[in-house]
Design goal:
The strands form 4 sheets. Strands 1-2-3-5-4 form a 5-stranded antiparallel beta sheet. It is 45% helix and 14% strand. A hairpin with a 2-residue loop joins strand 2 and strand 3. The protein is of the alpha+beta class. It has 11 helices and 11 strands. The radius of gyration is 29 Å and the shape is globular.
Length: 354
């Protein structure tokens, strides 16, 4: 009897030990090892399987921060569909349909969150003006496998582009509504395409544009292509920009910064929508720097200048704002854009006689 009693007690002790070791490990791999001891524990099998399912769900959520945000802060309980909606040459874009509405998500598998953080700050600043419609940004973060994502409001687009006069008026209203008391620049550096865009706060617009816009792109062309000709001529222009801005009142307005046709659309009610910004505070005329790729017509400019009156010398300055974007395209996409940039530089050097 003593021997038998001792043996029984030992088995019970072992059962207690197995049970004790299993319970604290239910959320880690040791939990699965514990399944082998189910016949010698007091835990219910269904309870363990339920905990296992919960564990797997939590693990899946942490591996997918986009899904995690949508099902928590996004107020959704179910994602019903994920569909690819293309994207540009830099990012991938997807639509997430849920029982709480739809979300627009962009991902980049090679660039960290800083690019999307800059975009989110710009979208947020434009959204706060309550002038022209932009998608409201919700969340930016890193992807577990590298890269980053941004979640924002999904806007159902209309069948046609925005009305030119409405677009011009609302854009001018945004420029008028949001000014900076810090000078020209932005709170963070961001990107124009995938090119870094330096936004160090500067009190003088001509200095800012010369150094952080034209000067930066010219140096990039020199470093990337060894193009000393465009660099040297461009630097001569950069040092002599001041006469183009005589008698001009320049205020630091909130700019979209990359306003071309691919970033302009309309919602299902026909209201203009602008997307994918490269925001900073600058001279309002700099917003027209991508007009060669935006098809702005007379009705656009007429409506714009009704709200933001045209400044003296506007026509004379237009091309200096085109130059920044031609240089950026040269640096991003190759020599096909060099001749346009070079032509603008040569024309200004002759005009300014420098």
């Amino acid at each position: 009897m003593e021997a038998g009693h001792h043996k029984t007690k030992l088995v019970r002790d072992r059962r207690r030990r197995h049970t004790w070791h299993c319970k604290p490990s239910l959320w880690g791999l040791p939990f699965f090892q514990c399944l082998a001891f189910l016949d010698s524990t007091s835990l219910n099998v269904n309870h363990l399987l339920a905990l296992s399912s919960k564990y797997m769900a939590v693990a899946a959520m942490s591996d997918d921060p986009i899904r995690e945000w949508i099902l928590s802060e996004g107020k959704a309980t179910q994602i019903t569909r994920i569909s690819s909606i293309g994207g540009g040459c830099i990012n991938r874009a997807s639509r997430y349909d849920t029982d709480a509405g739809s979300f627009f998500v962009k991902t980049n598998r090679s660039i960290g969150p800083s690019m999307f953080e800059g975009e989110a700050l710009g979208l947020g600043a434009m959204y706060e003006t309550q002038t022209i419609r932009v998608p409201r940004p919700f969340k930016v973060g890193p992807l577990p496998t590298g890269g980053s994502y941004i979640i924002m409001e999904f806007i159902e687009f209309g069948a046609s582009r925005a009305d030119q006069s409405v677009l011009g008026r609302k854009l001018a209203e945004m420029h008028k509504a949001r000014k900076s008391d810090k000078g020209f620049g932005f709170d963070v550096d961001n990107t124009i395409g995938s090119t870094p865009q330096i936004n160090t706060w500067t009190s003088d617009w001509v200095k800012f544009y010369a150094e952080h816009r034209l000067g930066y792109q010219l140096k990039l062309a020199l470093d990337q292509y060894g193009d000393s000709t465009i660099y040297q001529k461009g630097e001569r222009l950069v040092k002599n920009l001041a006469p183009l801005f005589e008698n001009v009142v320049i205020e630091p307005c909130l700019l979209h910064g990359d306003l071309w046709s691919g970033n302009i659309t309309s919602d299902k009610n026909g209201e203009p929508v602008i997307l994918d910004p490269a925001c900073y505070y600058g001279h309002s005329e700099a917003e027209f720097g991508m007009s060669w790729c935006a098809s702005f017509g007379g009705s656009f400019y007429d409506a714009y200048f009704e709200v933001m009156p045209e400044q003296p010398g506007f026509e004379k300055r237009r091309d200096v704002y085109l130059l920044y974007h031609y240089l950026n395209h040269y640096n991003l996409f190759g020599p096909g854009y060099r001749s346009s940039a070079m032509s603008i530089i040569d024309d200004y050097l002759r005009m300014l006689k420098v």
